[in-house]
From TrEMBL:
Name of the coding gene: Tmem88
InterPro entries found in the cross-reference section: TMEM88
Transmembrane segments: 21-49, 74-94
Protein name (record): TMM88 protein
Protein's membrane topology: Multi-pass membrane protein
Entry annotated with the keyword Transcription: no
Record organism: Leptocoma aspasia
């Protein structure tokens, strides 16, 4: 049964808000996971760029006593080399958590705003129609 125009507008705003919150939750989860997993790469590349004389050339004591230009270059190269496998690990962790928490299933279709009916998450889920296993 179709909804009235005012009710349709209200439900459109509610469904849009729910979908935006689910999107922001996915984005926050992805940001946290990628930051934690890529932290070794971030640290190594940061120290490499910080201590290299052609880039930032910090006056910190560890830059003068431990790291010269060759070791700073090695740190930069090492950081970019270990980034690829860590990106794969971060994406696998995110996909596993998103599937386990069923975050992508919670997006509501806008057809619920036009017609009265039960929300998609409230109906019985058919396990045969999953997008992934």
């Amino acid at each position: 049964e179709p909804r009235s125009p005012c009710c349709c507008l209200a439900w459109t705003l509610v469904i849009g808000t729910i979908n935006s919150l689910v999107f922001l939750l996915n984005l926050l989860l992805m940001f946290v996971i990628f930051t934690v997993v890529l932290l070794p790469t971030i640290v190594v590349v940061y120290f490499g760029f910080q201590c290299h004389s052609q880039v930032l050339h910090s006056s910190a004591s560890y830059c003068k006593s431990i790291l010269d230009d060759n070791s700073s270059s090695a740190l930069i190269i090492l950081g970019f080399v270990i980034m690829s496998p860590l990106l794969v690990v971060a994406m696998a962790i995110y996909c596993s958590l998103a599937r386990r928490l069923q975050l992508l299933v919670c997006c509501q279709p806008y057809s619920l705003a036009l017609y009265k009916g039960a929300p998609c998450c409230a109906r019985g889920r058919n396990t045969q129609l999953k997008a992934w296993v």
